[in-house]
Amino acid sequence: MEKQYFLGFDSSTQGLKCTIIDAQLEIVYERALNFDRDLPQFGTKGGAHVGPDGLTVTSPAPMWVAALDMLFEQMQTDGAPLASVVAISGSGQQHGSVWLKEGAEACLANLDAQQPLALQLTDIFTTQDSPIWMDSSTTPQCKAREAALGGAQATADLTGSRAYERFTGNQIAKMYEQQPEVYTATERICLVSSFMATLLKGAYAPIDASDGSGMNLMDIRTQTWSPDALACTAPGLEQKLGEVVASHSDIGVIHPYFASRYGFSPRTRLIAWSGDNPNSLAGLRLQEPGDIAISMGTSYTVFGFLREAQPSASEGHIFVNPVDPDAFMAMVCYKNGALVRDRIRDAVAEGSWDTFSALVADAPVGNDGQIGFYLYDPEITPPIHQTGIRRFDAHDHPVSAFAPAAECRAAVEGQSLSMRLHGENIGFAPKRILATGGASVDQEMLRVLSNVFGVPVYVAEKSDSASLGAAYRALHGWRCWQEDRFVSFGDALGGEPPLTCAMEPDAEAHACYSELITRYANLEQKLIAEGE
Ligand code: 5FX
């Protein structure tokens, strides 16, 4: 039988990446480009432009078109097996929006295979400056949304999250208020994910329910646009957004342009694209309630599979699950992630990770009741704007310093306790944890995590899993399309992912943390109240 391949993209903030897998899930090809380095003509820094107010952050939409041209050319030069790709899907950075003018779809339909996309699609945007997730300029629109929808908790209950500045609905409300001529001239507002799918389809592609959950516009239970959430955003919005589809949906075949120019089969199926975080869940193959991943990079993110949604106004986001339309995923983000460990390593562990780990191991489980909060940056979870380090002794009295071992352990235990506390608040009941990112190589970090949560910790080999997740979702969606029914993600991928357990919990240590967490939560409440 001829080989069948599945292609996944990741259109992230900083670059565009692709991964091709075979039907046995082996990666056969990968390639990435970086916007700043490879497309310098767009003058981006980290893939973005920051406005003079410091709050407005955009990316040039034509850059994403040029990136797709460049990556396809590279794939062709490398001899990637494009002719045997049977399905394509992708990830987009979440929340970003692309604004297309009337007539854009006709332009997309009539592409000339002799020319790159970028040359033919210069004039399809009503604004070239696409607001992206790093934007934090829409506080007034967020306040107005929460007031219109009955408060932060009501907004979260309806849309999965309280109103967040970066969420697309609030960006759309701002555009309508500040540049009504752009809004009016726009025929279609895409997410980054559905825009990239639109390019491949040569026609408007729908938004999938999982990425659609990051807009403050969709009812996460019906997976349709909420009339109330639309009404407090801008008039006539539903038409401009198009329909929402389940994430595993087949959305048609690739446009003949790509078949002629790059040798794809004209029968190559397109599966709805989704957000990078939903696709990371797919990439790590979290497929059961109780599966959670902790990504410990620059910022820390905890995300996982949930059967029931328990939206919270104070922390995290609920998205429709990208691999199971009857389930949800939750995500909690921290600003003070790896930086905390870095700073403490430099301050008390001679800049050495070995010394840092040895110091953590030197202090007892529970740190003799000492608790620290290390807020080098304003924190998102929980929202504490006041920066600084706060240390408390076993009687909750503030102290100005800890001994080096206690300092290292306080940082690691505090981060782990916070992830458990806020994860529980949004409905996580972990059965196992998959740790990824830089800090996941630290055995002491893994030991503390395992003991705090009371579950085994596994380590994922690959942490940048969004484009791999998109390739898995291409396979999943293709199987569902072939069989004309929903096939579970696990069945489509051939069962359980192969994982090695890195740490088992210790019952006594877990009991100690279960006691300590109440004090941790009370102290955290005090810090939140002080900042208000
Ligand atoms: C999630 O809500 C975010 O804003 C980011 O993780 C973006 O998706 C990054 F692309």
Describe the protein's topology.
Elements: E1 5-11, E2 15-22, E3 27-34, H1 35-38, E4 49-50, E5 57-60, H2 61-77, E6 85-92, E7 97-101, H3 104-109, H4 117-120, E8 125-127, E9 129-131, H5 139-149, H6 152-159, H7 168-178, H8 180-185, E10 186-191, H9 192-201, E11 207-208, H10 209-212, E12 218-219, E13 224-225, H11 227-231, H12 237-241, E14 244-245, E15 250-253, H13 256-262, E16 269-271, E17 274-275, H14 276-283, E18 291-296, E19 300-306, E20 317-320, E21 328-334, H15 338-348, H16 353-362, E22 371-375, E23 388-392, E24 398-399, H17 404-425, E25 432-436, H18 443-453, E26 457-459, H19 466-483, H20 489-493, E27 501-503, H21 507-531
Helix pairs in contact: 5-6, 5-7, 14-19, 15-17, 16-17, 17-18, 17-21, 18-21
Task: Report on this structure.
The protein has 532 residues and is an alpha+beta fold. It folds into 2 domains: 274 residues, ATPase, nucleotide binding domain (Nucleotidyltransferase, domain 5); 214 residues, 2-Layer Sandwich (Nucleotidyltransferase, domain 5). The chain has 21 helices and 27 strands. Strands 1, 2, 3, 6, 15, 16 and 17 form a 7-stranded mixed beta sheet that branches. It has a 7-stranded mixed beta sheet with strand order 20-21-19-18-25-26-27, with helices on both faces. Strands 4-5-9 form a 3-stranded antiparallel beta sheet. Strand 20 and strand 21 form a beta hairpin. It is globular. The mean pLDDT is 96. The site of 5-deoxy-5-fluoro-D-xylulose has 11 residues, from helix 14.
